[in-house]
């Protein structure tokens, strides 16, 4: 089948996960074209040369460590005219010699609009839809309620009336009855490199921070005696006592993730999913005002895989480290057969669409 695959450019998590599915689709014999933006476009274009078109996407704006709603809206409004012109040019390019039979969207809008304009069925594959289509098993505190309401509204409005929703997740929840017929929960997408890694238990803690303007992180970690931290996110190669800053290296990061005793990170879905897959306890400190990150962190604590904190402090990290045996025991029960469940469901959905056509 001819497939258009939409990948958002915000961060690299969507790109690394989508890359796995795109490679599988090509191996299955499908003709796939991809639209994406920013760093995600660069990564995907390098991996699938000649198949990726660059569009102008939506980006979040930060103030200190928090997502700024006002700055994000302002950034979107300023960039909208040029984004529309660029995306219209790419739309015309797509129409020339390529007509998708199916659109797969990883929470990306351009491909969805393309599908609706040409009346092409849409398959949604992402982790975000769990916010609106499943019944949460954690209590949302009052201070998170507004973020929850906003996130649920945006998720519902993003890809309405898709043919099917495949929701990738490391925590299984009951679906809301109204959504159950066209929704399937599948395990998180795990990169082949992570599947091939052999987990061991080292004596260091892996730290990954996307909000690299937290300038006091090194000082905080230095206050945890006797514990080594290997920190990614600042793209530096420096030693500060027990804190080692690591330059960007995908192979190096995977090796140190497989060999660490535990992970300290924000609430990003990809790393948490990979840590759970490798049975690594997670200390999760989500970026404020990002409900999806809050939910990932809350579910880590709910399942006993780690601890959810609002801030990184020496006391919080020490408390987390003191509970590692309990987290390791809980993670020992987590089992996942790579991406086979996702691939089986996607193959069935595509076969059904081909039969209808």
Describe this protein's structure.
The strands form 3 sheets. Strands 3-2-1-6-7-8-9 form a 7-stranded parallel beta sheet, sandwiched between helices. Residues 59-81 have low confidence and may be disordered. It has 2 domains: 2-190 and 338-355, Rossmann fold, CATH 3.40.50; 193-332, Glycogen Phosphorylase B (Rossmann fold, 3-Layer(aba) Sandwich). It contains 14 helices and 16 strands. 39% of the residues are buried. It has helices spanning 13-27, 38-47, 69-95, 109-118, 130-133, 142-158, 192-196, 217-222, 250-259, 269-277, 291-302, 314-321, 324-331, 340-356, and strands at residues 2-6, 31-36, 52-54, 62-63, 66-67, 102-105, 122-126, 164-169, 183-187, 204-208, 228-232, 238-240, 243-245, 262-265, 282-284, 306-308. Helices cover 44% and strands 18% of the residues. The chain has 357 residues and is an alpha/beta fold.
Task: Please give a handful of descriptors for the protein shown.
UDP-glucuronosyltransferase; transferase; Rossmann fold; glycosyltransferase activity; alpha/beta; seven-stranded mixed beta sheet; 357 residues; 2 domains
